[in-house]
Design brief:
217 residues, mainly alpha, 8 helices, 63% helix, elongated
Length: 217
């Protein structure tokens, strides 16, 4: 029985948790073992928690306050902070896509549905805690409970693969923007201008910005 991956030190990064989930599935080999379902679900929940934490950290431009750090010590706090910043995140991604659309060579940025992750984290919880009715869970006819759990795990893994492997996830760093672009960004984020107005302003200043970078106009 090869479970050597259980002997290695634990790490706390998102990708490490994802690798652990995949190792559990590989170990299971399609048998849909009860304990594998529990351990894989625990690791995948940890991956979701860590992913949201890392996303929040980027949204805060890697500058957490003491209160931010305290709130992130619990998943409840992380979800609350993500909910509070969701509108800002959506507007930032929208602005990023706008910049990409008028700047040749930049990769398309994918929007991460944090509400989806919140929902799946809660669904995974069903497999991580005490079960009151074994006949409806681990003793279910035809392993209905286990099959549903493994299908959920694979579904979430596929979604993460779409976001982190098949596409590009990122957050625009406001402090890195030229002053003129930062001004447009601020007005857009605070809904003082709409998408068309922001695009028009960016298109007008784009030749000047390219010239400043020493590129051909």
């Amino acid at each position: 029985m090869n479970v050597s991956f259980l002997e290695v030190p634990r790490f706390v990064t998102f990708d490490w948790h994802i690798v652990q989930v995949k190792k559990w599935l590989e170990f299971d080999g399609g048998q849909e073992l009860d304990s594998v379902l529990v351990y894989a679900a625990v690791e995948l929940r940890a991956a979701i928690e860590r992913y949201l934490f890392e996303l929040l950290y980027l949204l805060k431009e890697c500058d957490f306050t003491k209160d931010d750090e305290k709130r992130c010590r619990s998943i409840k706090g992380i979800f609350a902070m993500m909910s509070e910043t969701d509108r800002f995140y959506r507007k930032t991604i929208e602005f990023t896509k706008l910049v990409v659309s008028i700047t040749p060579g930049l990769p398309e940025i994918t929007f991460v549905d944090t509400a989806y992750l919140n929902k799946k984290w809660k669904e995974l919880s069903e497999y991580c805690h005490m079960q009151l009715r074994p006949e409806e869970t681990f003793e279910s006819i035809g392993k209905k409970f286990q099959k549903r759990g493994f299908a959920l795990i694979r579904k979430v893994l596929q979604k993460f693969n779409e976001w982190t492997v098949e596409s590009n996830c990122g957050v625009l760093k406001r402090s890195s923007l030229p002053e003129e672009v930062r001004d447009v960004y601020d007005k857009f984020i605070h809904e003082k201008i709409d998408t068309q107005q922001a695009r028009r302003m960016l298109v007008l200043m784009e030749p000047i910005l390219r010239g400043r970078r020493g590129q051909s106009i």
